[in-house]
Design goal:
globular, 189 residues, 69% helix, 9 helices, mainly alpha
Length: 189
């Protein structure tokens, strides 16, 4: 419930300057930070040569999970409040659009790095793109479940279970399906 003009004023810049950097007020919250995209790319590229692509993504997701948890701890954030914010973002068309654009940029970055590791062209080989979409979906789902549990189930554990389920062919009996059993959920997903 804030305007771009109010954001610009609070940042002590003109509205025109604001729009030189951001296409919308939603982009302030959800735009893909070029430095963050570089970090993602470097994380995928840093794995030792010969490491299977799925394992590269698993390790990258675990590193990102540790980073998210550390940032929230530093901010004093409650995972359940982040779940509420995620739900609000999904309910708002403009935020949902900005979030989708952010996820697409992250997925393109992951796919490009995987394609380079695999020596392939992501325009002709769907494998890197498929893995990127799966990894980002598994991360988002794990993050939402972690937040719903109030952080009582470690985010890294949820990511491990997601990759374990993927490796097993996503069976209906996957341990992931019961990761939050017995946990007092803060909110329904």
């Amino acid at each position: 419930n804030v305007t771009a003009e109010e954001i610009a004023e609070a940042a002590e810049v003109s509205t025109r300057t604001f729009f030189n950097y951001f296409p919308s007020k939603e982009a302030v919250l959800l735009s893909a930070d070029p430095d963050r995209l570089d970090e993602i790319r470097e994380s995928v590229m840093a794995a030792p040569a010969g490491t299977p692509a799925v394992e590269v993504l698993h390790q990258a997701m675990l590193a990102w999970a540790r980073e998210v948890v550390a940032q929230l701890a530093e901010l004093g954030g409650d995972p359940a409040s982040w779940l509420t914010r995620m739900k609000a973002a999904r309910a708002d068309l403009h935020l949902r659009t900005a979030q989708a654009a952010q996820m697409e940029a992250i997925e393109r970055t992951i796919a490009g790095a995987l394609a380079q590791r695999l020596g392939t062209d992501p325009e002709r080989d769907p494998y890197p793109n498929l893995l990127a979409v799966l990894a980002s979906g598994m991360f988002r789902t794990s993050l939402a479940s972690w937040a719903a549990s109030g952080g009582s189930v470690p985010l890294e554990r949820l990511i491990d279970l997601a990759f374990e389920a993927l490796a097993a062919g996503l069976p209906e009996t996957a341990s992931l399906r019961h990761a939050l059993d017995g946990v007092d959920r803060k909110d329904n997903l």
